[in-house]
Specification:
15 helices
Length: about 350
């Protein structure tokens, strides 16, 4: 699309672009995250130069959204857990899952404010396993800022199905996470309990986020079966299904199988936790090839950014995580309109009614 010749439209486009493509800043991040790695000064100077250039050049980039109000920036994947004090006072960690990083909601809000992020989907962390009380308390305290994704309990007795219904209907969670590692070792997500959980999520209008940490190849058949048998259940693949840029035929086959899931219209993708899917240091430029192929298969309106806070903090800082997406998108000339989908519009469309007043 040709750029508008109107100075007003051009100015509006530049303002919208700047919202997403702000230069990297280090001073305030140092107050809220781990010490900046030794190589960061050169890296951040480079990123600042690139980001500034991207913001300037975006005035001529085609975008129907350029003339409208900037879209909200929404983080589709992060966690919160109790501070040490909270853990002592009523929100204990699950045995063996004590937190090693700071991940309380106060810290999260500081990071989001610094980065210009308007809202987020909080995914129940393994640190509290199936005790959702801490996350629930945060959702109730900040109802216009956060929505929740609960953790599916695949217990053999089926008790997780009632828990899922309670969390969605009574506690107002909007999604549920399937972690196949929590299924009994000899069971799959397609067992009777898994099917019941998956079907119940669809019935309640709650998308199912699937974490394939051990590789998409191990779970591709299960995901295909669930998508085929329960088309009313929306699926979100966390962290690009943990696919890194392929370096051999086996990895290419796995990545292609992930792309082929786009044939199911209910499947969405999180372009999230870039530090987990890269082979390079920040700003993770090799993920550009992944993003390009995913946009071609799924379309930007089925892709959403997520930081994976607080795990991302010692990697590149929370603000750096947001800025990396814009940097990577610039490497493959993603339009401003598509970038808006990835940084907020997709997740807002999927969870309609959320973040209206944030």
């Amino acid at each position: 699309m040709a750029s508008s010749s109107s100075p007003v439209a051009a100015a509006a486009a530049a303002a919208a672009a700047c919202r997403f493509l702000s230069p990297l800043a280090t001073a305030s991040r140092a107050l809220h995250s781990s010490p900046t790695p030794p190589t960061s000064r050169r890296r951040l100077l480079l990123s600042t130069t690139i980001a500034t250039g991207m913001a300037a050049s975006s005035q001529s980039e085609g975008s129907v959204a350029g003339a409208a109000s900037p879209c909200k920036v929404i983080d589709s994947h992060l966690h919160v857990w109790a501070s040490p004090q909270q853990a002592k006072e009523g929100y204990p960690y699950f045995p063996g899952q004590e937190a090693m990083l700071r991940g309380d909601s106060d810290f999260l809000l500081e990071c989001m404010d610094e980065a210009g992020v308007d809202g987020a989907l909080i995914v129940q962390p393994i640190n509290h396993m199936f005790d959702h009380s801490l996350v629930t308390s945060v959702l109730k305290k900040y109802p216009s800022k956060f929505i929740g994704c609960c953790l599916a309990n695949p217990a053999d007795d089926g008790s997780g199905i009632k828990q899922l219904e309670h969390l969605i209907v009574q506690e107002k969670y909007r999604a549920v996470r399937f972690n196949p590692n929590l299924w009994p070792s000899d069971q799959k997500m397609t067992n009777e309990v898994g099917r019941s959980l998956f079907a119940k999520a669809g019935e309640l209008g709650a998308p199912v986020g699937i974490m394939t940490m051990k590789g998409i190849g191990l779970y591709i058949r299960e995901i295909e079966v669930l998508c085929r048998d329960y088309p009313a259940t929306t699926v979100i693949l966390d962290h690009m299904a943990f696919c890194k840029p392929p370096t051999n035929d086996e990895e290419e086959k796995a990545f292609t199988s992930f792309l082929n899931l786009s044939r199911f219209p209910q499947v969405y993708v999180k372009f999230s936790a870039l530090f987990r899917i890269t082979r390079q240091p920040y700003p993770y430029e090799d993920t550009a090839q992944l993003l390009s192929r995913v946009i071609s298969s799924y379309g930007a309106n089925r892709i959403m950014w997520g930081s994976d806070f607080p795990f991302v903090v010692p990697e590149c800082g929370y603000k750096g995580a947001k800025e990396a997406v814009s940097h990577v998108a610039g490497k493959i000339s993603v339009s401003l309109s598509d970038l808006e989908w990835i940084l907020g519009k997709t997740v807002c469309e999927l969870f309609q009614g959320a973040w209206v007043a944030s």
